[in-house]
Design goal:
The chain has one helix and 15 strands, in the order H-E-E-E-E-E-E-E-E-E-E-E-E-E-E-E. By secondary structure, the chain is mainly beta.
Length: 285
């Protein structure tokens, strides 16, 4: 037991004395202080949503009336209602090393969104399905991590993104009361929050080529407000939030050279889908 304790102590001291020699750039999408990298990413994923409530403004005889309703108003078919938003996001990500273990990043891109409010069932309920035109999606956050001398690394990320899409492809919409509404204008404001924790292992195949498998878990939430205007000038909106807030992910990063890397990732839970990124790091020789 004493020998085992001594070995643990010696190993801990060795790790502490090697901290400055082992840079976080070696794993976990982290770069060293004052360095810069950029990546092109594509991210596809379907989010399970829940309808919180909506509002309907209707002009009746020149008088504006307002009704607030909840999901329960879709009464007889409530068990069949499965709202979801499916996104495809293309973006550029820019990362700066605040220090060796903390990075700041921003991203800017376009988002294509598919809105789905219900599953068509044999109950006479009309499914609301529509695809948007390209919209803007942008945000940023912080990433912190540490890589141990033997290759294991741990990192965490906190981020916030927001987007806006418009002009969904559906021309008709069934409101909460079963009325068919002819749509003249539609838009969706999207707000995403995420925090994740990731574990990986840096495998050195050659001095310039490395493979980094990783996995992790995340907590994420989305607030989405779909706004609709009918051809008669009436205004509707429905608010959605994430139904499943926890999820997991895993992937593989390939460091092709010291500067260039490619990453592929799949996710389950809060967002089911996949993503890929091609990254180039500046200032690394």
């Amino acid at each position: 037991m004493k020998k085992a304790a001594l070995l643990v102590l010696l190993f801990t001291v060795a790790v502490l004395f090697n901290v400055e020699a082992v840079k976080a750039e070696s794993g976990g999408d982290l770069i060293e202080k004052d360095l810069f990298d950029t990546s092109l990413t594509v991210d596809y994923g379907r989010r399970k949503m829940k309808l919180d409530y909506g509002k309907l403004d209707v002009n009746v005889g020149g008088v504006l009336t307002q009704t607030v309703y909840t999901q329960e108003y879709k009464a007889d078919v409530n068990e069949f209602v499965k709202p979801s938003l499916t996104d495809t996001i293309y973006s550029a990500k820019f990362v700066y090393g605040i220090n060796d273990y903390i990075n700041f990043f921003v991203n800017l891109g376009v988002i294509f969104d598919e809105y789905k409010d219900a599953e068509p069932m044999d109950v006479g309920y009309k499914a609301n399905v529509g695809k948007s035109e390209a919209g803007i999606y942008a945000g940023g956050g912080l990433r912190a991590g540490y890589k141990f001398p033997f290759g294991l690394y741990i990192a965490g990320t906190g981020m916030f993104n927001m987007g806006r899409v418009s002009n969904y492809s559906f021309n008709e919409y069934e409101d909460a009361f079963g009325n068919i509404v002819v749509i003249s204008e539609s838009k969706n404001n999207i707000y995403d929050w995420e925090g994740n924790l990731i574990f990986g292992y840096d495998i050195s195949v050659s001095p310039s080529f490395r493979i980094i498998p990783y996995f992790g878990g995340r907590y994420s939430d989305r607030y989405s407000k779909l706004e609709l205007r009918s051809s008669g000038g009436n205004y509707y909106y429905e608010e959605y939030s994430s139904k499943t807030k926890f999820g997991g992910f895993g992937g593989m990063e390939f460091r092709l050279t010291k500067q260039l890397s490619f990453k592929a990732e799949v996710g389950l839970g809060d967002k089911t889908g996949f993503g890929a990124a091609l990254t180039y790091r500046f200032g690394i020789e």
